[in-house]
Write a structure and sequence with these properties.
Arc Repressor Mutant, subunit A; binds adenosine-5'-triphosphate; binds magnesium ion; four-way junction helicase activity; DNA damage; DNA recombination
């Protein structure tokens, strides 16, 4: 299968998912639970259908598939889909990431060693360096790169033909991709948060693979606390499994699941420690906001990017947090969720019209 053929080619290539769970055992388990083909991939109906069409057409044409961009919050299946694309195309897969490609030469080394039809997965593609990005434009469009030899006035560009390949880019921040790069992808799949019903299916599949017994209500309880995210669902399932094991429980029902998850500080709405500390900071330190992203990030002791890509999308979707031109605000539901009464002046701030596209950084 394609995914297994990922091979190292220099330091810019990694064999795993950098954003995956930190512990090696967790990472291994996560890899084991990854669906291997489109049929096993739960949910994301639209993206799955569109992708199936792109792949089927390229098979009929006998060509490598068009370049594909996957965008969406962490843990929704971007890396999984990249691996599925390679597997479905019966093509080898090469994995690297934007941060690993700091020089155009890093990218040239990868591109020049690709074989025909190979799938090149570039994770966090928005974090690639500018010169590498420009090299990628030409490679994507004309399957050609110019290798610069020498320096200064004596430098010459040696053109190098590349075999046709499929680039699969993944990003949690599609807005940060320069237009010319975005335009060179033949297909962009926007991954959405999963419904509770879809997460139940993800959990059923994982439980089967891990040989765990759960009641329907047990699955529902975990799914409801998984923030619309399969990676979180699988992680919570493993924590509930640990809890059940230690307490000698064979069949996991809703009560077991909820007792275990309460212990891990995942609340009934699925908010974890980071989500809650963002809301608590907003409410208690800034009277509900508005407050700029960087200030908010400092208040919770996190990087702005972590707050923006990990906590915010879910809080926005749940109507707990709002983005205004003047910064982030706690929505009425946030006060309610924290068991607090919203003061009148915070109500006024929350009621101002706000624009989701504004990326403030005051
Ligand atoms: N549609 C799905 N069906 C079943 N399992 C899924 C699905 N999507 C994701 N998963 C599971 O969730 C885990 C995380 O998915 P994946 O690594 O593809 O996310 P990602 O979008 O690449 O995240 P990141 O932005 O952090 O890199 C996988 O190990 C896989 O087991
Ligand atoms: Mg990934």
């Amino acid at each position: 299968m394609g995914a297994g053929a990922a091979g190292p080619a220099g330091s810019a290539v990694s064999s795993g998912d950098p954003a995956a769970a930190a512990e090696p055992e967790e990472r291994e388990l996560e890899a084991a639970l990854r669906p291997k083909n489109l049929d096993d991939f739960v949910g994301q109906e639209r993206v799955r259908k569109q992708l199936a069409l792109v792949l089927a057409a390229s098979k009929i044409r006998g060509r490598s598939a068009d370049h594909v961009l996957m965008s969406g919050p962490p843990g929704l299946g971007k890396t999984t889909l990249a691996m599925i694309i390679a597997a479905e195309m019966n093509a080898p897969l090469r994995i690297s990431s934007g941060p690993a490609i700091q020089h155009a030469g890093d990218l040239a080394a990868i591109l020049s060693s690709l074989s025909e039809g190979e799938v090149l997965f570039l994770d966090e593609i928005h974090r690639m360096s500018r010169p590498a990005e420009e090299m990628l434009y030409m490679a994507m469009e004309d399957f050609r790169v110019d290798i610069i030899v020498g320096k200064g006035a004596g430098a010459t560009a040696i053109p190098l033909e590349l075999p046709p390949f499929t680039l699969v880019g993944a990003t949690t921040r599609a807005g940060l991709l320069p237009g010319p790069l975005r335009d060179r992808f033949g297909f962009t799949g926007h991954l959405e948060f999963y419904s509770v019903a879809e997460l139940e299916l993800v959990l059923r599949r994982s439980a089967g693979m891990l040989d765990l017994k759960l009641t329907s209500a047990g699955f529902a309880e975990i799914a409801g606390r998984s923030r619309g995210t399969p990676r979180i669902a699988n992680r919570l399932l493993r924590r509930v499994r640990d809890w059940a094991l230690v307490h000698g429980i064979e069949t996991i029902d809703a009560r077991t699941a909820s007792a275990a998850l309460d212990m891990y500080e995942v609340d009934a709405r699925g908010l974890d420690r980071l989500d809650r500390s963002v809301l608590e900071a907003l409410v208690s330190k800034f009277n509900g906001g508005p407050v700029g992203l960087s200030t908010l990030a400092i208040a919770v002791g996190e990087e702005p990017e972590t707050v923006e890509t990990v906590a915010e999308p879910f809080l926005l979707r749940e109507g707990l947090l709002g983005r205004t031109p003047r910064g982030r605000i706690a929505m009425p539901a946030a006060w309610e969720h924290l068991g607090l009464k919203m003061p009148g002046n915070a109500v006024a701030a929350a009621m101002l019209p706000f624009d989701e596209d504004v990326v403030d950084d005051v």
